[in-house]
Amino acid sequence: MIDAHCHVDQIDSPEEIVKEAEARSFTVIAVTNLPTHYAMPLAPLKGCRYVKPALGFHPLMVSAHQRELVPFLRLAKTANFIGEIGLDFSGKGIPSKEVQIASFQTILGALGDRQRFITIHSRCAVDIVLDMLNQQRVGPVVFHWFTGSTSQRARVITAGHYFSINPAMVRSSAGIRTIEGMPRDRVLTETDAPLARVDGRPTFPWDIDIVLKHLTNVWKQERGELERTIEQNFQRLVGKAIGG
Q1: Residue 241: what pLDDT?
Q2: Taking Cα atoms as reference points, which of 142, 146, 99 lies closest to residue 125?
Q3: How is the chain split into domains, by residue range?
Q4: Sequence-separated contacts (24+) of 99-102 with Cβ below 8 Å
């Protein structure tokens, strides 16, 4: 199974999560909110086969941590997994809108040299994220926890990008409607652990099972076939990112 967007460093006892994921051959993309958060776990994760650290700069962090833009650009030269990056124009993000745009522009400028696995935050900012990805010729990317409109979802699909679905999405009517319009060959699974919650508790990578059960019912696929579909979608992106 695959968790394409998980904040491993924010989970209690992250070392145990990594150990269990490796033992279970469970692929986890360990996204980070700041370049310094990415650099710190590189050594412990160096020998991991299934848990992959991703270089991130969360849009809600860029205003207060502008000094980290330089290390992001340096680390991006060798990073094959990027996330979480993007824009957030929700109530929390609007005050830093201009700083976010300028920083995202710089970040995308450093990612246009080759394909990487990139997981994107786009809350209330889907159209401008798409415009900027197109301008910088970055993609395909994965839109994590997509909450855009039907027309915006169509734009994402037309542009060749992907979506990742988490347990919180399959527990909400809006999320379920959004998922129903996603092509099967553009879908990945994620938890956004521990930030997304189910049944009043934080999620863990193993909660991918909730998403898979939902998709099995929606897509009318057997579990094994569904897992192969998700795996193929993931490998299609990762293969491009690492030259496979």
Answers
A1: 59
A2: 146
A3: 2-242
A4: 99/62, 99/63, 99/66, 100/59, 100/62, 100/63, 101/128, 101/132
- pLDDT for res 75: 95
Taking residues 114-133, what's their average pLDDT?
Answer: 97
Q: What is the pTM of this model?
A: 0.94
In Å, how far are 75, 103, 107, 110, 126 from 133, measured between CA atoms? 20, 13, 11, 12, 11
**100, pLDDT greater than 80:** yes
Q: The dihedral of CA 83, 90, 155, 208: what is its sign?
A: positive
Q: β-strand 197-198 against 201-202: which pairing, if any?
A: antiparallel
Residue of higher predicted confidence among 48 and 224? 224
**β-strand pairing of 81-86 with 117-121:** parallel
Distance from C-alpha of 49 to C-alpha of 232, rounded to nearest angstrom: 18
The confidence score (pLDDT) of residue 244 equals: 47
Q: Which CATH superfamily is domain 2-242 in?
A: Metal-dependent hydrolases (3.20.20.140)
Residue with the bigger pLDDT between 85 and 47: it is 85
Phi-psi region of 99 (alpha: psi -120 to 50; beta: other; left: phi over 0): alpha
Q: How far is CA 230 from CA 17, 47, 153, 176, in A?
A: 22, 25, 19, 18
Residues whose CB is less than 8 angstroms from the CB of residue 35 and which lie 6 or more positions away in sequence, other chains included: 55, 56, 57, 68, 71, 72, 75
